[in-house]
Amino acid sequence: MQVTTLIIIAIAAVLLIVFFYYCPFFLWISARVSGVRISLLQLVLMRIRQVPASVIVRAMIEAHKAGLKDVTRDDLEAHYLAGGNVERVVHALVSASKANIDLGFKMATAIDLAGRDVFQAVQMSVNPKVIDTPPVTAVAKDGIQLIAKARVTVRANIRQLVGGAGEDTVLARVGEGIVSSIGSSESHKQVLENPDSISKVVLRKGLDSGTAFEILSIDIADIDIGRNIGASLQIDQAQADKNIAQAKAEERRAMAIAREQEMKALAQEARAKVIEAECELPKAMAQAFLNGNLGIMDYYRMRNMEADTSMRQALGNNPTETPEINE
């Protein structure tokens, strides 16, 4: 008898566990007490569809307490099954409603499914965010390099969160605007005296077009002076001109050396021809002796003329010495 009673109690306990697992009775009581109209059967069907009933019911209670009329159970379930964050969407809708921001349920779910934090976007719409740009290097017209840092105050643009560009695009556009503004300045002193002129020029460009943010202000936080780019470029140009001039001079020197070597070669060739001609002279004289065209007296007169010529050359080179006369 006791065994039968224990079996019945065990079976009843199992049935109760299964009943409360598939039929969240206390969750239904909580919803009814909070004023949310939902049937117990729908909670059971949620469990079968593997939808967390507690998440959906809590979201419906929060939306009901905040006075949101367009949030229904079917919409919340559909958003959850699509992979969205139901709690974050409802938090965003409640915050937007309290801050008088026009944000509908469809827009909020689209933003959430797009991968953006819709609740953070609503918070940023209420409390704008300050973004610090990295150091931006630019050069004024006088050649002085300036390094500027800016602080960009942005507010989330709810309508542009789906398909709008992010923070990186805003920072890139602001950096481009700073470079353009500094580059158009005649002197770096003008930029240092009026840094707010950069902010005014950049804000007029409409840099937040097509982005998920609305730029409220751009403030130049710091400007440092960098290198004198103009002087460096002139020095580099002068060095390049010097190298070109040296290269041309070296080219002319090489051509002169080549010309000199050519002239030396021609002179050596001429000397060789003279020596060759002198070598033929004794043969010619011997042939003249044999033919009777040259006598012994003619030969001695020629030798005397050669001796006189040698003496005159020696006196011209060193007048203090008396040259030896070959008899």
Short description:
By secondary structure, the protein is α+β, with helices and mostly antiparallel strands.
Helix content: 55-70%
Task: Indicate the multimeric state.
Answer: single chain
The largest sheet is: 4 strands, antiparallel
> What is the count of β-strands?
4
Q: Based on helices, strands and strand pairing, what is the structural class? A: alpha+beta
Distance between the termini: 172 Å
Strand content: 5-15%
| String of helices and strands | HHHHHHHHEEEHHHEHH
Number of H/I helices: 13
Cα gyration radius (Å) = 53 Å
Question: Would you give an account of this structure?
Answer:
This protein has 327 residues and is α+β, with helices and mostly antiparallel strands. 64% of the residues lie in helices and 11% in strands. It contains 13 helices and 4 strands. Strands 1, 2, 3 and 4 form a 4-stranded antiparallel β-sheet that branches. Helix 4 runs parallel beside helix 6 and helix 6 packs parallel to helix 8. The mean pLDDT is 82.
From the structure above, extract its key features.
327 residues; alpha+beta; 4 strands
Topology:
Layout: H1 2-22, H2 25-33, H3 40-48, H4 53-66, H5 73-81, H6 86-98, H7 105-113, H8 118-126, E1 129-132, E2 136-139, E3 144-156, H9 167-183, H10 188-193, H11 196-203, E4 213-228, H12 229-291, H13 296-317
Antiparallel strand pairs: 1-3, 2-3, 3-4
Helix pairs in contact: 4-6, 6-7, 6-8, 9-11
